Amino acid sequence: MKNIKIYGLVLGLALLQNCATTKNFSYDGKGFKDAYNSITSAELKENLYIIAADDMEGRDTGSAGQKKAGVYMIEQYKKNGIGFPPALGSYYQKVPSASMKKYGETLPDSENILAFIPGTEKLEEIIVVSAHYDHVGTKNGVVYNGADDDGSGTVAVMEIAEAFQEAKKKGYGPKRSILFLHVTGEEHGLFGSEYYSENPVFPLANTVADLNIDMIGRDDPENRGKQYVYVIGSEMLSSDLKKINEAANDKTVKLELNYKYDDPKDPQRLYYRSDHYNFAKHNIPVAFFFDGIHEDYHKSTDDPDKIDYPLLQKRAQLVFATAWELANRPDRIVVDGKNTR
Ligand SMILES: [Zn+2]
User: Fold this and answer.
1) For 5-20, what is each residue's pLDDT tens digit?
2) Can you tell me the distance from the alpha carbon of 52 to that of 71, in angstroms, rounded to the nearest whole number?
3) Which domains are delineated in the chain?
4) Tens digit of pLDDT for each residue in 173-212?
5) How much distance in Å is there from the Cα of 47 to the middle of ligand 1?
6) Distance, CA 24 to ligand 1 centroid (Å)?
7) Taking Cα atoms as reference points, which of 196, 201, 54, 57 lies closest to residue 132?
8) Which residues contact 62 (CB under 8 A, 6 or more apart)?
9) Cα of 222 to ligand 1 centre, how many Å?
10) What is the distance in A from the centroid of ligand 1 to the CA of 38?
11) What range(s) does the Peptidase M28 domain occupy (predicted)?
12) pLDDT of residue 204
């Protein structure tokens, strides 16, 4: 009798504990849904009008305008209670001038900006969500605001971080750690991401994937008016990643996923042309999210009033949903492919 009572008590406690630790991380669960719904076109717009304002002077690498944009971004992370990687000791990773000389230019010292949410179960495994926050600056007194390139990716990364932090506050913190990586020097030669990959704050061997966003706020002539996004490189290194991204899309925004640029014969060779490649070359699976080459690409007219904010929201939500699965699934994704076809 006594023994049975004790057994009952132990069983009861075990059930109670089980209820407390088994949370629903699926796309149908409240943890995901609330966070997903916190990504809004209104907040993306508010931030983008600041990041791509004239007083950021086109955010050229190492310029006062770029540093001002960086300060604003860090203020937002602080406001949301999102810190930096402990090993770095600050949000800044200095990218020295000497590391950016490859193409004969001399650029000033500049900074990558890193925000970090530690994983609750697999702290040492890192998911990277990246975007470059530099642009091409000012030419003949005209500011190149770079609202789409890559203000759109910059504010998307900030909003995705905020969504993960929302989930964390409600007890749904990511199981793996997430690094929000804003790189510098992209327009001059992918320098910030190259510097990070050569001076990683977390071991590359523990870096599971990089989801890179470079231009997701517009459409190109080929897809005018469509609800789409180009996804590039998602099946190169991992047979899991493309499937995860497609499942995330089916469960959420249902965009048309365009794989045109995955064709190895495509002359644009975009797989090699943005910051994700500095992860891919170290055998880290990547997916690159992109809206295409449009009329205002690298022109002074790439302005925030031309952004399709509802579409920007959907694309940011897709990257969030994919990152969510990468961070919370039981097994780390496989690396079973090669960088060349
Ligand atoms: Zn860009």
Assistant:
1) 555 555 555 555 544 5
2) 14
3) 25-328 (3.40.630.10)
4) 999 999 999 999 999 999 999 999 999 999 999 999 999 9
5) 18
6) 36
7) 196
8) 97, 107, 108, 109, 110, 184
9) 19
10) 25
11) 112-321
12) 98
